[in-house]
Amino acid sequence: MIRILALSGSSCRGSLNQKLLDQAALGARAAGAEVTSIRLSDFELPIYDADWEAEYGLPKGAQALKALLADDHGLLIATPEHNGGYTALLKNALDWMSRPNGFPSGKVAALVSASPGLLGGVKSQLSLQIVLNKLGVHVIPESFALGAAHQCFDAEGGLKDADVERAVRGVGAALAQMVSRIGTSGRGSLAA
After folding, report:
1. Average pLDDT for the chain
2. Structural domain total, the chain
3. For residue range 132-158, what is the model confidence (pLDDT) as tens digits?
4. Shortest CA distance to 144 belongs to which of 28, 4, 11?
5. Cα(66)–Cα(62) distance, rounded to whole angstroms?
6. How many of the other CB atoms lie within 10 Å of CB of 14?
7. What CATH number does the domain containing 10 carry?
8. Which residues pair with 112 in a beta bridge?
9. Of 140, 139, 56, which Cα lies nearest the Cα of 96?
10. What pLDDT score does 185 carry?
């Protein structure tokens, strides 16, 4: 079974990025993946500090995130854009998930973003991709950035435009298909 961890870098109630992530997760599920959706704000994580880690070890929130990550093959990430980059919440979670022995190998990720701005958060995707690559995560080329996102959702959190919905769900499906293609053992090859 393909398992995907879906998370958003937003802690806002009613987050546009969470709504977009939910749509992408539907695409992954339709492609046969089991998707676990989490909110990073539900995990108690102090700001990463090496001295803090040396004194106290991994916080319980980091231990829980690492356990979830170990069980999943793919990451479906919605990344809000703050001043042209991704959020401190997301960076801090990634830092803790990489401690103490690095990020688990063999992970594949797909990125989506939503913003009231016209570019839809594409700059946050670019900066996040650099960090994920550094952590050894393969980021698939399929992604989606939704501009003017505050106008794109209905009252139930669905997308108003069927073409946009299809494209966003396609990102989730593409992630599930890539994980399936390389295998779920963590020993598959990304070159094929």
Report:
1. 92
2. 1
3. 999 999 999 999 999 999 999 999 999
4. 28
5. 6
6. 9
7. 3.40.50.360
8. 78, 144
9. 56
10. 54
